[in-house]
Amino acid sequence: MIEQTSIELSETRIHAIRNIQEAKNELLVEELINNTTAIENMISGYYYESRGKVYGLNLKKDSIVFEDNLRGYLTLDYSINYFMGCQDLTYDDKNNMRIDFEINIPEKVIKLSGENIREREPDTY
To answer: Residue 122 pLDDT more than 80?
Structure first.
């Protein structure tokens, strides 16, 4: 299971990412910080969405690695909070995740993909 999301980019941002190589990390960080809700929602998909809340998203500029001109990965630190009503339990945990990104210039988006978490196979009878 891989959760994904896309973030729309303005024409100005596309031009800057394409032409200003030394500022790519800063531009990517700005765009991701401006869209933390979309990223939190993507990460929430790995948990019980109705019971878990992702918060405290922290993106470190030095964790961004460009594998080529428009693709790479980064690491996000975040906290997760679960509330289990039947048991009246609240659970908080810190976690991190590698996020792969691809800047798609024709579509004017950054596509983000979380980690591939293997799903449990069904039990056999």
So the answer is: no
Q: How far is CA 58 from CA 29, 72, 78, in A?
A: 10, 18, 6
Distance between CA atoms of residues 93 and 27, nearest Å: 30
Q: Is the pLDDT of residue 11 over 80?
A: yes
| Stated length of the chain | 125
Q: Alpha-carbon distance 61 to 82, whole Å? A: 28
Average pLDDT, stretch 92-113? 92
Q: How many CA atoms lie within 13 A of 36 on its CB side?
A: 13
Higher pLDDT, 76 or 90: 76
Poorest-confidence range of 6-10, 86-90, 109-113? 86-90
| 95 within 8 A of 80, measured Cβ to Cβ | yes
Asked whether 53 and 92 are in contact (CB, 8 A), the reply is no
The helix/strand/coil state of 123 is coil
DSSP 118: P
